[in-house]
């Protein structure tokens, strides 16, 4: 890693350090991380997987993501909401995912809460994007040292508190902030990363759900 949190990729371009030039992680960095998402299934999937990631690395979850999708009905929360104790026992025995009973139960619970949230706001996307931080709330320049301090923010803390009031679980402020970074509610590609401007252009042209 260079002093400013960037590393040179196999193509010679500088990128955020964290993907460590692992092929699958680099592809995630370039093609997914920070790009705005308004698809409810993807939003639900991501916030659940961030919950599973707690205490682990995202790369561990990324490499099991297809297994998680197969296990949790593609993260169709209408279907996951119908899971029962038989499904919980099935998932606890599934070596392809993280076999944490609490997190499995949390995903089923959160699917039921997601249905309630959609009824109230019309979509999960509308709920989450209505809480996008304004430009004034973001650092003027996002360098590596600044990024290190952003494990959680006022916005992620507020969303976390609101979700918990609504009965969601495994949605602490740090988990919510990681979700916001990944789903494009903020652009946390470091200054100098070759993807930062592309992601910012995509965010600029993104039509926020209302």
TrEMBL record:
Entry keyword set: Metal-binding, Zinc
Signal peptide: none
Organism lineage string: Bacteria, Pseudomonadati, Pseudomonadota, Alphaproteobacteria, Hyphomicrobiales
GO biological process: base-excision repair
Keyword field contains Zinc: yes
Record-linked InterPro entries: Adenine_glyco, DNA-3mA_glycosylase, DNA_glycosylase
Superkingdom in the source lineage: Bacteria
Name of the protein described by the UniProt record: DNA-3-methyladenine glycosylase I
Gene3D superfamilies attached to this UniProt entry: Hypothetical protein, domain 2
Record carries keyword Metal-binding: yes
Species assigned in the record: Flavimaribacter sediminis
Residues reported to bind Zn(2+): 16, 29, 189, 193
Molecular function as annotated in GO: DNA-3-methyladenine glycosylase activity; metal ion binding
Pfam families: Adenine_glyco
